[in-house]
């Protein structure tokens, strides 16, 4: 039998927890990836809030968090291992800059 159900959208607090708290949280995955290249990665709390705010704004939910993080981290993931830099601090302004350069609107429309 087919089953239909209605789910309520996740609120900002829940999205923030999904982003940072579980054992395999997105942020922890990125920290681990950067550690493999001997690069320290840290996030400003305001950066988390901005990422969550955009996920709520575009109604992307938990899956959208991954797309936003990928958009923000992509350049650093590919460029930093070939440089002498050993630290990346992700601030709100860094996230804003990367999101302006990216095309999140196109992704949001396809969801």
Low-confidence stretches: none
What is the averaged pLDDT score? 91
Which percent range fits the helix content? 55-70%
Q: If strands are numbered along the chain, what order do they take across the biggest sheet?
A: 1-2
What count of helical segments does DSSP give? 6
| Strand content range | 5-15%
Outline the biggest β-sheet.
2 strands, parallel
Instruction: Tell me the structural class.
Output: mainly alpha
Beta strand count: 2
The radius of gyration over CA amounts to 15 Å
Please report the distance between the alpha carbons of the first and last residues: 26 Å
Order of helices and strands: HHEHHEHH
What general outline do the C-alpha atoms trace? elongated
Plain-language structure description:
- With about 110 residues, this protein is mostly helical.
- It contains 6 helices and 2 strands, in the order ααβααβαα.
- The protein has helices at about 10-20, 25-35, 45-55, 60-80, 90-100, 105-110, and strands spanning about 40-45, 85-90.
- It has a two-stranded parallel sheet.
- Helix 3 (about 45-55) packs parallel to helix 5 (about 90-100).
- The longest helix has 19 residues, at about 60-80.
- The protein is elongated and about 55 Å long.
- The mean pLDDT is about 90.
List keywords for this structure.
single chain, 111 residues, mainly alpha, 2 strands, 62% helix
Task: Describe how the helices and strands are arranged.
Elements: H1 12-20, H2 26-36, E1 40-43, H3 45-57, H4 61-79, E2 87-90, H5 92-101, H6 104-110
Parallel strand pairs: 1-2
Helix pairs in contact: 1-3, 2-4, 3-4, 3-5, 4-5
């Amino acid at each position: 039998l087919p089953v239909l159900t209605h789910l309520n959208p996740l609120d900002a607090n829940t999205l923030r927890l999904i982003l940072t708290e579980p054992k395999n949280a997105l942020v922890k995955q990125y920290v681990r990836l950067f550690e493999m290249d001997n690069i320290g990665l840290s996030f400003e709390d305001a950066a988390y809030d901005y990422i969550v705010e955009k996920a709520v704004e575009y109604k992307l939910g938990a899956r959208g968090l991954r797309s936003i993080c990928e958009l923000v981290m992509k350049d650093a993931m590919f460029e930093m291992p070939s440089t002498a830099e050993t630290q990346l601090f992700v601030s709100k302004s860094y996230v804003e800059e990367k999101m302006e350069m990216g095309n999140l609107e196109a992704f949001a429309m396809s969801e």
